[in-house]
C-alpha cells in the first residue's frame, strides 16, 4: 500500500490500515522509516486531536480490569477509544502483556475500540518514541481518546508523561507504610490518583488510602494552571464500576480547563520539542552503530585496550572522524 492510500484509509477510520501503519512506524528498516516520516507529516495536516490519557500502576493493581470497564463505559457512550501499551518488560521477553488475549476481552471486540500491544524493542526509549507516533496515527484515525498504559516500574512513567495530556495513577488500597514507599517523582506526575478495588472488604481501606493520598498530594506543589482541587485522589472499582463515571467527569473537567487556559497547547508544543531532541539524539547514537563509524570505533577501542592510546585521545580522534563523516 502506498503512503497516500494508507493515509486516506486511515483517515476514514479503517482499523486494518491503522494496524498496518503502526507496524510501519515500528519497523527498524530505513526505507520503512522514510515512509513512516512521510505518513506522519501527511496526517499532521488534518490537525485531528484526541484526549491523550496516560495510565500507570504496578502489576496487579487492576490496570487491565480498569481499562476494560472504563473503556467499555465510554465505548458504549459512542466514544472511540484506542489503547496503546508501553511495556518495558516486552523489551526483554519479546512478548507483551497485552498480547494475552484474556486481557480486555470485551473491549477488544467492541467496534469503537482499538487495542494495540507494546512494540517489542531493545530500548525503553525506542518503545516510547514509537508509541508517541502511534498516538498520532490513532488521532488521525479519528479516535476521541487514546489511552497509553504503562507498568509502573519507574522510567516508563516519565516517558508516558511526555506523551499524554493527563496522567492517571492507579493505586491499590494500602496501609500508610506502603504509601511512604511511593516515589515522590511519580506522585508529582499524577493529575489524578485513582485508588482501585474500592469494593467489598477493601472498601474501608480504600477510603482511608484515598484520604492519605489526598493529604500527600496537598503537600506537593499545585500546578498553578489547574483548578484548585487538582491533583486529586478518588476511589474507583474496576470490578463494580463504582466511581468510573465520576472519574471521567473529573478528567473531562480538567481537560476542558487546560484547553481553555491554553496550557494544553503549550504542553503539546513542549512535548513535540522534547521528542524532536530525543529523535536527534537517537539518530546521532545510531551513527555509531553503522559503518564507517563502527569500524573506526572498533579500531580505536582495540588501540586503547592495547595501551597504544589513552581513552581521551582516542575519543577525541573518534569525534574528529565523525565531524568529517
Ligand atoms: P494489572 O496487572 O494492573 O493489569 O491488573 P489486573 O487488571 O490484571 O488485575 C489484577 C487482579 O486484581 C485481578 O485478579 C483482578 O480481578 C483484580 N481486580 C482488578 N480490579 C479490581 C477491583 O476493582 N476490585 C477488586 N476487588 N479486584 C480487582
TrEMBL record:
EC numbers: 3.6.-.-
GO cellular-component term (any): cytoplasm
Annotated keywords: Hydrolase
rRNA processing recorded as keyword: no
Similarity comment: family membership: Belongs to the SIMIBI class G3E GTPase family. ArgK/MeaB subfamily.
InterPro entries: GTPase_ArgK, P-loop_NTPase
CDD domains for the chain: MMAA-like
Single GO MF annotation: GTP binding
Organism: Pseudogemmobacter humi
Keyword check for Hydrolase: yes
Protein name in the entry: Putative GTPase/MT1543
Amino acid at each position: 500500500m502506498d503512503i497516500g492510500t494508507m493515509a486516506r484509509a486511515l483517515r476514514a477510520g479503517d482499523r486494518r490500515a491503522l494496524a498496518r501503519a503502526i507496524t510501519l512506524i515500528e519497523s527498524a528498516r530505513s526505507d520503512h522509516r522514510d515512509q513512516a516520516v512521510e505518513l506522519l507529516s501527511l496526517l499532521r495536516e488534518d490537525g485531528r486531536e484526541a484526549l491523550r490519557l496516560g495510565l500507570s500502576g504496578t502489576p496487579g493493581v487492576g490496570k487491565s480490569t480498569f481499562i476494560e470497564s472504563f473503556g467499555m463505559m465510554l465505548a458504549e457512550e459512542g466514544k472511540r477509544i484506542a489503547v496503546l501499551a508501553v511495556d518495558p518488560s516486552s523489551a526483554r521477553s519479546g512478548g507483551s502483556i497485552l498480547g494475552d488475549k484474556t486481557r480486555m476481552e470485551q473491549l477488544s471486540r467492541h467496534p469503537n475500540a482499538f487495542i494495540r500491544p507494546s512494540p517489542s524493542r531493545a530500548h525503553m526509549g525506542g518503545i516510547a518514541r514509537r508509541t508517541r507516533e502511534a498516538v498520532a496515527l490513532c488521532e488521525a484515525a479519528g479516535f476521541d481518546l487514546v489511552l497509553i498504559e504503562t507498568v509502573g516500574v519507574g522510567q516508563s512513567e516519565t516517558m508516558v508523561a511526555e506523551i499524554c495530556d493527563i496522567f492517571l495513577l492507579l493505586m491499590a488500597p494500602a496501609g500508610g507504610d506502603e504509601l511512604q514507599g511511593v516515589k515522590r517523582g511519580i506522585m508529582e506526575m499524577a493529575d489524578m490518583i485513582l485508588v482501585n478495588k474500592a469494593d467489598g472488604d477493601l472498601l474501608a481501606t480504600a477510603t482511608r488510602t484515598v484520604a492519605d493520598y489526598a493529604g500527600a498530594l496537598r503537600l506537593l506543589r499545585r500546578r498553578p494552571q489547574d483548578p484548585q482541587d487538582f491533583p486529586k485522589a478518588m476511589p474507583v472499582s474496576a470490578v463494580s464500576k463504582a466511581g468510573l463515571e465520576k472519574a471521567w467527569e473529573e478528567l473531562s473537567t480538567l481537560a476542558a480547563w487546560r484547553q481553555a487556559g491554553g496550557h494544553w497547547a503549550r504542553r503539546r508544543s513542549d512535548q513535540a520539542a522534547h521528542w524532536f531532541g530525543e529523535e536527534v539524539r537517537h539518530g546521532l547514537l545510531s551513527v555509531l552503530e553503522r559503518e564507517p563509524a563502527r569500524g573506526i570505533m572498533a579500531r580505536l577501542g582495540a588501540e586503547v585496550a592495547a595501551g597504544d592510546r589513552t581513552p581521551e585521545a582516542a575519543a577525541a580522534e573518534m569525534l574528529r572522524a565523525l565531524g568529517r563523516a
